[in-house]
Design goal:
homodimer, Four Helix Bundle (Hemerythrin (Met), subunit A), 2 domains, 10 helices, about 65% helix, DNA-binding
Chain lengths: ~250, ~250
DNA sequence: TGAATACGCTGTGTATACAATATCGCAGGA
DNA sequence: TCCTGCGATATTGTATACACAGCGTATTCA
């Protein structure tokens, strides 16, 4: 134990998990690289048990992959893996929107969504949008998606959506940031906001099919834009999560 | 250590996980019941570290729930949780079928699916179906769904479908067994088989939307039948997985 | 007699020691 | 020179010990 000071305010497992995730997302650990427990113990300061725990959790999140002979490696993603993940989440959110519409949502429950919508409207009034406003947009957008998911009132579905969003590039914030690299960024944000407006309207009028369709379109748009952004890799370093893309895209 | 003989042929973690899952699914552990590590150590014969590992994995599978103050409890499911889980998997499989259709599948890749289909046809020729044949049907059906999922060639999607099928009542075998309790069981199996036939046809003709629609319908049918089966709880003990349903369905 | 405090026990989180296995390198023989 | 086998080393899997926290109970004081 010696002089290693232990921070008791937060569990060692969580601490190790966060530290490891940072290392992966920041690119300190390259995709495909094997990650050894001992090495992780040194860099995180926790001991082997919590580190192992953290590694297992990160595997579940999808950031790591178990090596059959033992140990873990940083997972590498192809461009298609990423677009599939986004479309996957869109499909799940579509189902959530349909559940919300079919099961009925009170005006009171819809209130936070509408507030979110209005706040984003306010932000988008700026042309061009400032860096600060964009950052607020990312937060509000994530909040909107989370609230929408909750409306489904289906714990199994919510759980699954959370898992699908665990990969940084598949999270609402992730793909908004990817799109921001495009010159048409502002236009894209405005279209996205239009989708948000439509889905609320569809849920209010209990039109399940329409609510579902618009969320899927929302995701498909994101996929198209991500492809564009990857073509002209200009400001792509904006999105550290993309460090996970394997260099040799197949 | 003393006289505890250790089985080295399979990892202790896996052994503990299987033993615990058996206990949960067999109903030895009631839903909502707290499960203590020490108790699990005694019943599984493994030591605390692998047991903890197994508990974490079972939590990820969705069978257990972490208690904030520490420890785990057996998760309880409402009837709606179960039908949502089935519909969720249907939606995911629909996406897989669409991917398969849109991305194209060679005749060679479709071969195993068709063999599966033919084998099931053979089984269904018996009227009424024997217990043995039914058991073969369950296996073949699971195989069909797994093969179909593979055809999507989308690792993220396959991964998600696997997770969605982890809960026993959400797996292909699970809901087939639930439906078997109904008097119209034979008829239901025949309709299901028709769905299988259509999805292969749609994939062959690259009709993504049709392939997707039929898989969703497939799941919706299962949900309807599950509801029926739960109404007249006659042979419901056929499905041990349903031990997880909380007694007071909300 | 009731309430409050203290003590003890059960159980989890963490650390570390030990055992088993896989991989890599080196040496010897074909 | 290449292949194979054996050994050493490194790393994971497993077991257990220790510490701290939460909770229940019992005892004492008002």
């Amino acid at each position: 134990m010696a002089e290693r000071e232990v921070d008791r305010s937060v569990s060692q497992t969580v601490k190790a998990q966060l530290a490891l995730r940072d290392q992966i997302l920041s690119g300190a650990l390259r995709p495909g690289e094997r990650i050894s427990e001992l090495q992780a113990v040194e860099t995180t300061g926790a001991s082997r048990t919590p580190v192992r725990m953290a590694l297992v959790r990160l595997e579940e999140e999808g950031l790591l992959e178990a090596i059959p002979s033992g140990g873990f490696m940083v997972k590498a993603f192809s461009e298609r893996d990423i677009s599939d993940s986004i479309e996957l989440r869109g499909t799940l959110e579509g189902l959530a929107a349909r559940f919300a519409a079919e099961r009925g949502v009170s005006a009171r429950e819809l209130e936070p969504l509408k507030e979110c919508l209005a706040a984003i409207d306010e932000l988008l009034r700026q042309v061009p949008i400032s860096v600060d406003a964009f950052s607020s947009y990312v937060t509000l957008n994530a909040r909107f998606h989370a609230l929408l998911t909750e409306l489904s009132r289906s714990p199994p579905l919510i759980r699954q959506i959370d898992r699908a969003s665990a990969l940084p590039f598949a999270s609402p914030s992730g793909f908004v940031m990817a799109q921001s690299a495009l010159p048409e960024a502002q236009q894209i944000l405005i279209i996205g906001q239009e989708h948000h407006r439509v889905v609320i309207d569809a849920i209010e009028n209990r039109e399940g099919a329409r609510a579902e369709a618009i969320m899927r379109e929302h995701a498909r748009l994101a996929v198209r834009n991500l492809r564009l952004a990857l073509r002209n890799r200009t400001h792509l370093d904006l999105l550290p999560a993309l460090a996970l893309i394997k260099s040799a895209t197949d």
